[in-house]
Amino acid sequence: MFNNSSKILFITMMIIGTLITVTSNSWLGAWMGLEINLLSFIPLMSDNNNFKSTEASLKYFLTQALASTVLLFAVILLMLKNNLNSEINESFISMIMLSTLLLKSGAAPFHFWFPNLMEGLTWMNALMLMTWQKIAPLMLISYLNLKNLLMISVILSVIVGAIGGLNQTSLRKLMAFSSINHLGWMLSALTISESIWMIYFLFYSFLSFVLTFMFNIFKLFHLNQLFSWFLQNKILKFTLFMNFLSLGGLPPFLGFLPKWIVIQQLTFCNQYFQLMILLMSTLITLFFYLRICYSAFMLNYSENNWAMNSHINNFNMNLYTIMTFLSIFGLFLISLFYFMF
Amino acid sequence: MKYLSICSISFLNLIFISMTCFVLSLNFMLNNMVYFIEWEVVSLNSMSIVMTFLFDWMSLLFMSFVLMISSLVIYYSKEYMSSDVNINRFIMLVLMFVLSMMLLIISPNMISILLGWDGLGLVSYCLVIYFQNVKSYNAGMLTALSNRIGDVALLLAIAWMLNYGSWNYIFYLEVMQNEFEMMIIGSLVMLAAMTKSAQIPFSSWLPAAMAAPTPVSALVHSSTLVTAGVYLLIRFNILLENSWLGQLLLLLSGLTMFMAGLGANFEFDLKKIIALSTLSQLGLMMSILSMGFYKLAMFHLLTHALFKALLFMCAGAIIHNMNNSQDIRLMGGLSIHMPLTSACFNVSNLALCGMPFLAGFYSKDMILEVVMISNVNMFSFFLYFFSTGLTVCYSFRLVYYTMTGDLNCSSLNMLNDEGWIMLRGMMGLLIMSIIGGSTLNWLIFPIPYMICLPLYMKLLTLFVCISGGLFGYVISLMKLYTLNKSLMLYNTTSFLGSMWFMPFMSTYGIIFYPLNLGQIVSKSFDQGWSEYFGGQHLYNKLMTYSQTLFLMHNNNLKIYLLLFVFWILILFNFLLFL
């Protein structure tokens, strides 16, 4: 992917598109950034040798294009009624805009395209879809001052993310549902303050990067591969599943930190109902992560006879080790830094 | 390559320490000297927890006896346990046991005595379950849990001792004798001692503990562990005098003595007979102690330790030769096949019965005569003398079954009397159980007891013993057409032969209803309602939801996009018309 010069161009364009969106001071500029971002991400997704990725890119294009169209429609409507730069007071217009942005980011009532799409992507594309592609819509959502619809979306996102992952055997779909669940948390962080959202987003990106990095190296796409690929290296397996738990937000690991911050801020804002649903759904996600981890954490487990050797080069291994160390001991390290400075 | 055996090393060490203790004890006795060593471990809120060692002639003498018996037992184990893979573990456990016993003997402090006391409980549990099978596991559980009651009582006594600001009980016993708190402490200590010495409500563990290897029975369940309770009460004897505690203890220990003596007459397991006889002798010690004669109790404790350990070692040798069969009905004629062992067996049996000038005679005869000149009621008097008769009765029955007649085991059976290591171990104790009584008598009682009795009372002991012996012979006499006397009174026999149903009461009786309740709770709550409404139901529901969700996911993309457009149209309608 990185050897292809056109792909480098598209990646740069994609980044620029997002930057245009988050820095623009008018809705039209934001829309333009979104379009640039969309149009440059599609060639990244499609692969001539893989018709599933072509299908995925087409689905992505259709969904995002529809969302962008409606967004443009709403923006023009807004401009007709007011000035382009004015504060948004019209709740229905902003509801339309919020709906489009939720569709773009893949939040719950409009998330149906997201897991299907993920199924056709490579892991690097999936990572980009889960993390980078969320920045622009979420940033735009933060401009909209509309709590009720957002809260409905939050609740639905966490529930769908939790329940959708339960019966899942495809790792990409699992990560997709996990992403939806985390998106719920991020949206609820967004209702409190942008900096909390940013912290959550950064930690989420880091944790999902560690996982997808390993999945990408070992070309893991289904759960049963997890049990067979790592037989030669039990510690690798063990740490990988620790990363899973970290992503799920189990307390001693780093993944708990952003959740902790959100939990604290939500209690300060008296959002107990929302918080309770968030926590319950996270328990369900933790349940299925733990269920996956059984084979790694238990003393006795069944092993396949057809296990294959897995290869990982030295640089990747070092990178993985450092990231895993941060992911597992990050919470303690942060406390240490707190005492240090 | 022959290594130096752990048994030999331990034997040499222990016998050396034993001799040292014995000489020291003589010195202390001669000079009437007591050493009191105290080490403060921690001081908390003006309470100091101290490790205290009390060396007087009593503790040193007891220590020397325990060490001597344990050294001989370890020597004996070298052959008895020679084919055992884990003999090192076994010897180490025995040594740990001896260490705990030492700590118990020399501690006059409630907290430091607990160290030895709990050590005894733990190690005796490990020794009882040494042969790892279900039977010994059950026996070990019964032993450990019965003793746990005593541990708890001791802990409670420690809590009550907080009132006095220190746990060195020997300083308070005399001063606080009439205090209510001291009475509570005394009763708790008595409870502890009764569990350790297997007095009546807690008797069932002692015969059960015979699942342990025979050397352990010789050391632990006859001479040392079970006498720990007696020794504790000897230290607390002031509290028993002139109080209801002493009276209660007299009744219970008298009944224990009677019950065990009677039960031994119905038993066919060689080790269990000896265990019941131990129980009976413990009752004797306890009862004379509860009447205030603590020196006599100590005296009997020591002599009993000698001949009872010997008796167990002989039984072990016999069992070893009978290929681990303990049933006395299969034995017989052993005096011909194993003469030396049989000699030791008979000497210790006679010492147990109180044959004049053997070890048991001096202590037992003195106890009985002291009882006669003391002021006891008719019931206790009856218990004392009837139990003495029963002792002789079951001893003669045992001799009849094992020593006389023909061997009743399989027709091809190799018996020999050439286990020289075992025999050498037994010889040491044989000498001690012949001369031990008189030696101790002269040492412990420099001034003889003044006992003045009419002739017929003086002869009462002798009469009781002889008639007991005759009874023992007559009731076990068997011919081809002998009517089985036990089966004629089956209910009575099963009552008396099973220790008055005490093993059932202290196992099933206690656990039956809680266990049933536990089963019901576990079935209907843990695995029933709370499982259904808790984990399983939640899991099933979530799985159903998940499946429903996937039904929704399996649609065409255009449906989702159309739904989105409809949603936008609805919003737009509101925008237009509101």
UniProtKB/TrEMBL annotation, chain A:
One MF term in the entry's GO annotations: NADH dehydrogenase (ubiquinone) activity
Biological process annotations from GO: mitochondrial electron transport, NADH to ubiquinone
Domain annotation NADH dehydrogenase subunit 2 C-terminal: ranges: 286-338
Reaction it catalyzes: a ubiquinone + NADH + 5 H(+)(in) = a ubiquinol + NAD(+) + 4 H(+)(out)
Keyword Magnesium: no
Gene Ontology CC annotations of this record: mitochondrial inner membrane
Membrane-related topology note: Multi-pass membrane protein
Domain NADH:quinone oxidoreductase/Mrp antiporter transmembrane: 24-285
Enzyme Commission number: 7.1.1.2
Location, primary (coarse class): mitochondrion
Alphabetical list of Pfam families matching this protein: NADH_dehy_S2_C, Proton_antipo_M
Keyword field: Electron transport, Membrane, Mitochondrion, Mitochondrion inner membrane, NAD, Respiratory chain, Translocase, Transmembrane, Transmembrane helix, Transport, Ubiquinone
Keyword Lyase: no
Superkingdom: Eukaryota
Transmembrane stretches, start-end: 7-28, 60-80, 92-114, 148-168, 199-218, 238-263, 275-297, 317-339
Cell compartment(s), UniProt: Mitochondrion inner membrane
Family affiliation: Belongs to the complex I subunit 2 family.
Function, in words: Core subunit of the mitochondrial membrane respiratory chain NADH dehydrogenase (Complex I) that is believed to belong to the minimal assembly required for catalysis. Complex I functions in the transfer of electrons from NADH to the respiratory chain. The immediate electron acceptor for the enzyme is believed to be ubiquinone.
Designated name of the protein: NADH-ubiquinone oxidoreductase chain 2
UniProtKB/TrEMBL annotation, chain B:
Matches recorded under InterPro entries: NADH_DH_su5_C, ND/Mrp_TM, NU5C-like, Proton_antipo_N
Segments forming domain NADH-Ubiquinone oxidoreductase (complex I) chain 5 N-terminal: 42-90
Domain NADH dehydrogenase subunit 5 C-terminal: 394-573
GO molecular function: NADH dehydrogenase (ubiquinone) activity; NADH dehydrogenase activity
Keywords, sorted A to Z: Electron transport, Membrane, Mitochondrion, Mitochondrion inner membrane, NAD, Respiratory chain, Translocase, Transmembrane, Transmembrane helix, Transport, Ubiquinone
Membrane topology (UniProt): Multi-pass membrane protein
EC number(s) recorded for this UniProt protein: 7.1.1.2
GO biological process, one term: ATP synthesis coupled electron transport
Compartments it resides in: Mitochondrion inner membrane
Major localization listed first in the record, in broad terms: mitochondrion
Gene Ontology CC entries for this record: mitochondrial inner membrane; respiratory chain complex I
Segments traversing the membrane: 12-37, 57-75, 87-106, 112-131, 152-172, 184-206, 218-238, 244-266, 273-293, 299-319, 340-361, 381-400, 421-444, 456-475, 487-513, 559-577
Top-level taxon of the source organism: Eukaryota
Pfam families per UniProt: NADH5_C, Proton_antipo_M, Proton_antipo_N
Signal sequence residues: none
Catalytic activity, as annotated: a ubiquinone + NADH + 5 H(+)(in) = a ubiquinol + NAD(+) + 4 H(+)(out)
Domain NADH:quinone oxidoreductase/Mrp antiporter transmembrane: 107-390
Family assignment from sequence similarity: Belongs to the complex I subunit 5 family.
Its biological purpose: Core subunit of the mitochondrial membrane respiratory chain NADH dehydrogenase (Complex I) that is believed to belong to the minimal assembly required for catalysis. Complex I functions in the transfer of electrons from NADH to the respiratory chain. The immediate electron acceptor for the enzyme is believed to be ubiquinone.
Protein name: NADH-ubiquinone oxidoreductase chain 5
Source organism of this protein record: Drosophila grimshawi (Hawaiian fruit fly)
Lineage, uppermost ranks: Eukaryota, Metazoa, Ecdysozoa, Arthropoda, Hexapoda
